[in-house]
Amino acid sequence: MPRPPSFYHFFQGSVKFLIVISYSCPDCGKVGERVKLKELLKNEWVKTGIMLAIVLIAFFSFWFGLRFALATEYPLLAVASGSMVPTLNIGDLIVVRGVSNFSEIYAHPINGGIIIFTTYDPNIGQDPINLWPGKAPELIVHRAINKTLKYDSHVGREVYYFTTKGDHNPTADAWPGTNFDGVPEYYVVGRVVGVVPWVGNVPLFIRTPSGILTIFALIIIVFLAEYLFSTVREKKKPPVVVEEQV
Fold this sequence. Notes:
With 246 residues, the chain is of the alpha+beta class. Helices cover 34% and strands 20% of the residues. The protein folds into two domains: 2-70 and 201-234, no CATH class; 76-196, Umud Fragment, subunit A (Ribbon). It is elongated, with a radius of gyration of 26 Å.
C-alpha cells in the first residue's frame, strides 16, 4: 500500500523547532531593545531562520504546484507493500496523475492501467461504503484488470467499477461485507504515470519513530554547529580599540 510522503509533517516539526530555539538564542531576544534591521540580518541565527523559511516556501510551492499540475491530492506516493512486485517494489516512489475521464483507464489482466484508490471516502454519496469495514481508510495501488459501467445508487448515476489485483497476489481483490463487486470510479484518486526506484524509502523511513528521531537529531546538530561556528568567528574578530580624546 502506498503512503503519502510525510515531508509536510517534517517541515511542520522543523518550524516548531525553529521557533523554540529562537527563544533560547542569546543574541535574538533582548527585551526592551530595538534592533535595527541591518544589524538583525547580520545575526547568524536570523540568517539560518531566513534560509529555512526559503526552503519551506520553495518546498510548498513545488508540492502544491505539483498537485495542481497532476490534478490529484496525492501526486507522489511511496510504495509500502509488495503486492505489486515485480512491477512496483517496496520503497519505489510513484508519480500519480488524476483521472478526469475514467473510460480512458485501460483494464486488462496483463497490462491494464495501474490505479490508486482509497478504501473509504465519507464525503461521497448519501451512504458511503467502506471497502474494508471496520478499518481505517487506506490508499492502495493495484492493476485494473476489468471494468464495468453500471448504475450506482450511492451517487445516483452510472459509474465505472474496476476489478483490481496486485501483480504479486494470486487472486483479484474482493470486498467482503459490502455490496461492491469492484472499486467505484469515485474512489479512484489517480493512475500511475511514473516510477522512481528506491526514493520512496526516504519518506517511509521518516514515518517511523527512528526516522523522526533521526530528523530532529540532524536539526539539532545543524543548529549547534551554526552556533559553534558563529562563536568561533566572533572570537577571531580583532578587538575594537577606542581612542580616548584628550
